[in-house]
């Protein structure tokens, strides 16, 4: 019988898999490794408080066909992803460190904070896949986003006023990070492209 397994870490779904109950627990761990890049040796899997041992068949534990399995990892196991964000009107990528159980929606909020692109106007593109608002509750791991991922943010709306609004917010943010002498040299709101060549202090 096939099992539809959700791997839970810190009360969030990291990944969902379908696996035959006649396979070993170790085979399930190998599938988890392939999906979210956590080594099998670092995975501790439990169901209803019972440890799932590598050498036992999954059917031994009498798991339901749709099942949540909890995963724990040692403190030494890296659980943060380094991702590189390319946002509209920004030439230099933003580097973020995100925990693997963080959701897409939480990442959008961070992008909004640093890049002034409203989260409700962001469409996330990764590895030729497009993620929209319906994916906001899913974790980065569940979406297949891995360490050193290169992510592009595009605007959901192409209305002129929406684009101008984002440009204005970016301009205000950049002006606030520049020294007074530079702000005086570029008082015009049309100068944001020139100002982007300056690294904020």
From TrEMBL:
Highest taxon listed in the record's lineage: Eukaryota
Gene3D superfamilies noted in UniProt: Phosphatidylinositol 3-kinase Catalytic Subunit, Chain A, domain 1
Annotated Pfam families: ubiquitin (PF00240)
InterPro entries: Ubiquitin-like_dom, Ubiquitin-like_domsf
Domain Ubiquitin-like: 3-63, 81-156
Protein name, UniProt field: Ubiquitin 3
The organism's taxonomic lineage, starting at the top: Eukaryota, Metazoa, Spiralia, Lophotrochozoa, Platyhelminthes
């Amino acid at each position: 019988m096939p099992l539809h397994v959700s791997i839970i870490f810190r009360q969030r779904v990291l990944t969902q898999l379908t696996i035959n109950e006649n396979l070993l627990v170790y085979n399930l761990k190998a599938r988890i490794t392939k999906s979210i890049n956590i080594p099998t040796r670092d995975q501790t899997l439990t169901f209803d408080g019972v440890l799932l041992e590598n050498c036992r068949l999954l059917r031994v534990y009498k798991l339901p066909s749709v099942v949540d399995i909890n995963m724990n990892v040692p403190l030494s196991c890296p659980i943060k992803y380094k991702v590189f964000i390319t946002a509209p009107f920004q030439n230099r990528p933003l580097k973020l460190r995100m925990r693997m159980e963080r959701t897409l929606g939480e990442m959008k909020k961070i992008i909004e904070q640093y890049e002034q692109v409203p989260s409700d106007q962001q469409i996330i593109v990764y590895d030729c896949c497009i993620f929209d608002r319906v994916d906001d509750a899913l974790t980065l791991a569940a979406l297949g986003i891995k360490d050193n991922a290169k992510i592009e943010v595009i605007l959901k709306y192409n209305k002129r006023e929406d684009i101008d609004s984002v440009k204005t917010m970016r301009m205000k943010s950049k002006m606030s990070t520049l020294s007074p002498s530079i702000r005086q040299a570029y008082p015009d709101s049309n100068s944001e492209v020139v100002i982007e060549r300056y690294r904020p202090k």
